[in-house]
Design brief:
16 strands
Length: about 290
């Protein structure tokens, strides 16, 4: 993320440059989906030589956290005279490629147990249902009993950043219009525009942001020069609406946002969901019947 912003609890927040009451947020670590009693929706059905793990995860804050953020924004920006109900909070534009569950053994080797798609919209809910080996079962049980670095939930995706880019060309076109004929082509008008920019008769103003490739800036400038040439040609033909009838001034602006995607992954240690080993209540041991497992 290259937008300047601020932290609120585990959220990174930044302003919408076009709307003073709109703010974007980026969540921190993934968190568990919870049942009506507030407990993580995780269960481990443990057999002698295997187990079935089911759990729900999400990547997004709870509503009470967003309410607190709205109040914090009101306090942080007093000159905007906002009230919490006016503050619009939007999840930063992202595409989630997968949600993964990873187990790590005592030897430090990690294994991807399952990769699933999410709900596609904030809070990007994911549901896992996976059968475990004996070694994976042991690692999951350690995590539920509070031992760190054995079970991880990871989200992978792309941040989409929109970078505004624009170029404006303006000036008094009286002299330039006189140098053109009503039958002049756009290419001929383009030569006149380039000459006026070199002489300072026309002014070119660029607006860009850090991270925009130079060739994209050049593309926008080229489109602005072509648009200025077309506007000048219309002036010469007496068809322009852009000009002041007396001064023959005109202004052309080309805006072309650039979207950039940046890969990211965020993860959390599932043992942190169960302080003091509280995850043991989510383990159900099933005794084998007649020596057969399901």
């Amino acid at each position: 993320m290259n937008q300047p912003g601020f932290m609120f609890q585990s959220l990174y927040c930044y302003e919408d440059s076009d709307s003073p009451d709109t703010f974007y947020y980026v969540p921190g670590e993934p968190s568990p989906e919870r049942d009506p009693q507030g407990r993580p929706t995780l269960s481990l059905l443990a057999f002698e030589d295997t187990a079935i793990l089911q759990l729900g995860a999400r990547w997004g804050p709870e509503e009470k956290t967003l309410d607190a953020l709205r109040r914090a924004i009101v306090d942080k920006f007093p000159t905007r005279c906002l009230i919490p109900a006016q503050v619009r909070l939007v999840h930063s534009p992202v595409t989630i490629r997968s949600a993964d569950i990873i187990v790590t053994g005592e030897n430090g080797q990690s294994e991807l147990l399952q990769s699933v798609t999410t709900s596609g919209l904030p809070p990007f809910m994911a549901i896992f249902n996976v059968r475990l080996s004996v070694l994976a079962k042991a690692s999951v049980i350690r995590a539920l009993y509070g031992t760190a670095n054995h079970l991880t939930v990871r989200y992978r995706g792309l941040f989409t950043t929109v970078l505004p880019v624009s170029t404006a060309i303006s000036g008094d076109a009286r002299h330039e219009v006189q140098s053109l004929r009503s039958s002049s082509t756009v290419d001929e008008a383009r030569v006149v525009v380039d000459r006026a920019l070199i002489s300072g008769q026309f002014k070119l103003t660029r607006y860009s942001t850090p991270g925009v490739p130079p060739d994209f800036n050049e593309l926008v400038e080229e489109e602005a020069r072509v648009a200025a040439a077309k506007a000048l040609r219309r002036l010469a033909q007496g068809q322009a609406k852009e000009a002041d009838p007396e001064l023959l001034r005109f202004a052309v602006t080309i805006s072309k946002p650039l979207s950039q995607n940046t890969s990211f992954d965020v993860s959390t240690d599932v043992s942190t969901w169960f302080p003091q080993g509280q995850g043991k209540i989510h383990v159900r041991v099933v005794e084998a019947i007649c020596g057969n497992n399901p």
